[in-house]
Amino acid sequence: MNPRIEIHTDKLTHNAKQISKMTQGYGITPAAVTKGFCAIPQVAAAIVEGGIGILADSRIENLKKLRTLNARTMLLRLPMISQAETVVKYANISLNSEIKTLKALNEAANIQGRTHQVILMIDLGDLREGIMDDFELMAMIRQIKSLKNISLVGLGTNLTCFGAVIPDEKNLGRLIDLAQKIEKDMGQSLEFISGGNSSSVYLMMEKRMPKGITNLRIGESILMGTESAYGKKIPDMHYDAFQLVAEIVEIREKPTVPIGQIGMDAFGGKPIFEDKGMRKRAIVAVGKQDFATHPVKCIEPGVDILGSSSDHMILDITDAEKKYFIGSELKFTLSYGAMLALTTSPYISTQLVSGGLG
């Protein structure tokens, strides 16, 4: 059915293998972030096939889908106390910053006869989640020691997501120093020194990753083939594993400038138009309700995107190399945000494609 998103699982397996190879050289165990495609189990399985043994997601609903796969599961969003029971049930590991939540997880784990693993999050300046004060951190660790069903397995940080702070040797170095201090205090090593997400991948590309980082939570780099600090492509990766397919519902010759007084569009913006005379335009049946304002790019030669309303995308096909008709399909590559929105939309169908990497 159209519109649809085509997911090339063989390309994702390839990307996962490349990331596994890259991280292995630095002694890093990657966790593949599955929220970008709503944790479709077959897609996650393709990533596991690429050699990644930890699957991470922000939503318990998504982690439930992954329970049959041969992989550990990690909850990325700070747990809600109201979901403590399901967090322990479906996540092997969770990221935490509040002792009250840890006590709730401990109680839930005790009832279920489990030990729940936790990574304490450290705020290194991005100002999203995490502990900033060293004294508070050490006090929390002393309290964790009394929680019999909680196992502290690591320290982590999140960068670029809110404050857009770039991970570097200095801030990740501080995370490593804190971890070493805690290991000395606890008398045991931590499995995870989790140095962020796909925005940290550029450090490996530039051979600058600090020694001591043992984990990265990687979504965009596997799914899109890019690092997210500067948006650079990672060599030898596939960048089109996710493609939007949309169907043409109108083709007309129309002016390039609207006729009449210009006000706000449906989303509160005031558009600007360049007068190019009469042009052949096509409308496809997909719009901002499906991919919001996130960028998509038509891969068909000579086709330009003019804009979108809630339900329609308007294209200039005057210079297109192909001839299009009502019912013709056009393909689009996606930004990470567009992929996330499209796979979340109930109006977009999903088609898994395998074989013929291209």
TrEMBL record:
Keyword list, A-Z: Isomerase, Pyridoxal phosphate
Pfam families to which the protein is assigned, alphabetical: Ala_racemase_N
GO terms, molecular function: alanine racemase activity; pyridoxal phosphate binding
Coiled coil ranges: none
Domain of life: Bacteria
GO CC terms of this entry: cytosol
UniProt xrefs under CDD domains: PLPDE_III_AR_like_1
Named cofactor requirement(s): pyridoxal 5'-phosphate
Classification via SUPFAM superfamilies: PLP-binding barrel
InterPro entries (alphabetical): Ala_racemase, Ala_racemase_N, PLP-binding_barrel
Annotated Alanine racemase N-terminal domain residues: 7-224
NCBIfam families: racem_Orr
Protein name, UniProt field: Predicted amino acid racemase
Source organism of the structure: Tindallia californiensis
Source lineage: Bacteria, Bacillati, Bacillota, Clostridia, Peptostreptococcales
